[in-house]
């Protein structure tokens, strides 16, 4: 359950940004998570709800965007979608894919404020 | 109170703090010429035994230390300290993984220049350690033959953050009905080209190759950098 550590880090980062913006009401905290980030989205939602109760961001929604899985494909000569985390195959040409390009993201994208 | 909702872009890594500490550690290890190697696996895959045998093999040849993460007991730390190598326990309590800050605090008073090789034994867990960079330059993921060949398919993130897979307890492979070729196929499906070693720390099988990997990395890390 490392999602609690992640929820705390996320709240800290979001709170720092909120302070920087001055008095605003945060409606949503928007994150982007890749399939190889090692994060269970359901567990993160639960941890976030629990952690935010003692935070100035209590009441803010956690909005999660999926980051795509992609890797450099040596045959195509560019980044391509990968079939799945269990099948490291170029989604375009079907060859073995190379170095990961996207898919490990665990990023705070922004805040929806009013 | 109401206003027009607007979007404020932030774009930063959620674990930025951990990543910054990890980078600082990596730089510090690099400057001091220390090879930092971490071991991750599920509980009971044989991290401590592999480490114990590794320390015994290398203790005459290089200056080593061990950080060992454990939820509650100091059993592993005592086993490792019995080799005579400096061992420090990091008790994580309810935290199921090590974070870079825990490493930084543990070695705060150390003189890294007195070391060649630092081992970091993570808490037994194939899930959570995947998200946390510890500043290590080599991460080995252990997969014991009793766990089943499909672990890479079930836990892709940890196999994606590791540099090498070490199949452990090879002496039990036959009794466990372990299909090494299948395990390697599964690894290749998740992470093509990943280096795979097989060892039995108990019988010594495959240990030369593991020690060889460590010593070659150690030489590479101690080679003076061109300015």
Structural descriptors:
heterodimer, A: 114 residues, alpha+beta, hypothetical protein PF0899 fold, 4-stranded antiparallel sheet, 3-stranded mixed sheet, B: 227 residues, alpha/beta, 7-stranded parallel sheet, 9 helices, 8 strands
Structural commentary:
The complex is a heterodimer of chains A (114) and B (227). With 114 residues, chain A is an alpha+beta fold. Chain A has a domain at 2-68 and 102-113: hypothetical protein PF0899 fold, CATH 3.30.2320. Chain A has helices at residues 3-21, 41-52; strands at residues 26-33, 61-66, 70-73, 78-84, 87-90, 100-102, 106-113. In chain A, the strands form 2 sheets. In chain A, strands 5-4-3-6 form a 4-stranded antiparallel β-sheet, with no helix packed on it. In chain A, strands 2-1-7 form a 3-stranded mixed β-sheet, with helices on one face. Chain A is elongated. The relative contact order of chain A is 0.25. Chain B is globular, with a radius of gyration of 19 Å. Chain B has 227 residues and is an alpha/beta fold. The model of chain B has no long low-confidence stretch (mean pLDDT 94). Chain A binds chain B through residues 1-2, 5-6, 9-10, 12-14, 17, 21, 25, 27, 30-31, 35-39, 85-88, 96-98, 100, 104, 106-114, and chain B through 1-18, 95-97, 99, 127-128, 130-132, 153, 156-158, 160-161, 189-192.
